[in-house]
């Protein structure tokens, strides 16, 4: 009877292999989340969504900003962090004081987003434009400096 095959002999080895694969997958997912959170510095729940693309010699940030004009938006670049904010004011001039609204849903709105860029950019060559409610920011990458700098040792 010792020659009879035991059906559960390979299960422990199979479970160990499956456990190692799940641990590897979990570590991969965690590193992807870490990379994503390192780029987005905004508080969670922001309504304005953005895309950050690496187009070789420049980064391109695209943000949907419906209803915002270029005067309503502010861009700031501090180091490798791009801050985008906007405020839309309610206009009171439609219809004057005699106008009675049956429904008024448009209101003052503001947003703020910050995104960390993966590499340094040339601050002087940044370009931004708004077209059909889409803000596009082009951030040329900074050329690496080939100059060698001597460092004094104290």
Automatic annotation (TrEMBL):
The lineage of its organism: Archaea, Methanobacteriati, Methanobacteriota, Stenosarchaea group, Halobacteria. Belongs to the small heat shock protein (HSP20) family. It holds the Pfam family HSP20. The keyword Acyltransferase does not apply. Signal peptide: none annotated. Keywords: Stress response. The keyword Plastid does not apply. This is Heat shock protein Hsp20. SUPFAM superfamilies: HSP20-like chaperones. InterPro entries: A-crystallin/Hsp20_dom (IPR002068), HSP20-like_chaperone (IPR008978), Small_HSP (IPR031107). Residues 41-154 form the SHSP domain. Transmembrane segments: none annotated. It comes from Natrinema limicola JCM 13563.
């Amino acid at each position: 009877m010792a020659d009879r095959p035991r059906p559960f002999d390979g299960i422990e080895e199979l479970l160990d292999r499956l456990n190692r694969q799940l641990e590897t997958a979990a570590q991969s997912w965690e590193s992807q989340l870490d990379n994503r959170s390192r780029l987005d510095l905004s508080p969670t729940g922001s309504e304005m969504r953005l895309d950050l693309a690496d187009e070789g010699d420049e980064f391109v940030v695209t943000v949907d900003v419906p209803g915002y004009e270029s005067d309503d938006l502010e861009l700031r670049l501090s180091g490798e962090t791009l801050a985008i904010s906007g405020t839309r004011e309610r206009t009171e001039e439609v219809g004057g004081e005699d106008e009675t609204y049956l429904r008024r849903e448009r209101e003052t709105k503001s947003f703020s987003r910050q995104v960390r860029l993966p590499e340094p950019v040339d601050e002087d060559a940044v370009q931004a434009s708004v077209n059909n409610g889409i803000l596009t920011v082009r951030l040329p990458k900074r050329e690496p400096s080939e100059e060698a700098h001597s460092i004094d040792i104290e």
